[in-house]
Specification:
This protein is mostly beta strands and about 150 residues long. About 10% of the residues lie in helices and about 30% in strands. The chain has 1 helix and 8 strands. Strands 2-1-6-7-8 form a 5-stranded mixed beta sheet, covered by helices on one side. A 3-stranded antiparallel beta sheet has the order 3-4-5. A hairpin with a 3-residue loop joins β3 and β4. It is globular.
């Protein structure tokens, strides 16, 4: 029997903590062929997404995949992310959260190009904050902790 990773449990815990504290949970994700996101918002092979209840619809943080619907530039999109590709989850307002090591499988097999997302949803109150994709900048040491 293989051991189940703690990563999805920690992601769910930090997400819940942010929500309970009235903070906005953001996740940083390494984009590869398994990651279904709007490619125009990918920078340096990564994307930062607002995963708050206000910005997402039908959010499911599973043990292997994170899936939800969100709006980008007013257009609703389906988002699907492998948990292995999540490099951090943190609160936008103060940067507190946790960083993760991204699995080696995330970078292999770059030959398969990921499909571009097409507008697919006509309804939804979800909206991803594409205007605020980067974590807060501040002096001092990061509050994120690397989990292996």
């Amino acid at each position: 029997m293989s051991e189940i990773s703690t990563k999805p449990y920690l992601i769910r815990a930090i997400h819940q903590w942010c929500s309970d504290q009235g903070l906005t949970p953001y996740i940083s994700v390494v984009v590869d062929h398994r990651t279904l996101v709007p490619r125009q918002f990918v920078q340096d092979g990564q994307i930062v997404l607002n995963v708050s209840a206000d910005a997402t619809q039908s959010l499911v943080i599973g043990n292997e995949m994170i899936a939800f619907q969100a709006r980008f530039g007013g257009v609703a999109q389906n988002i699907s992310l492998p948990v292995d590709n999540v490099s951090a989850i943190y609160a936008r307002e103060n940067g507190h959260g946790m960083a993760f090591e991204v699995g080696a499988g995330s970078f292999g097999d770059e030959e398969t190009e990921a499909p571009e997302l097409e507008p697919g949803l006509s309804d939804g109150s979800a909206s991803a904050d594409a205007d605020e994709p980067s974590p807060p900048k501040g002096g001092g040491r990061s509050h994120l902790k690397l989990v292996k």
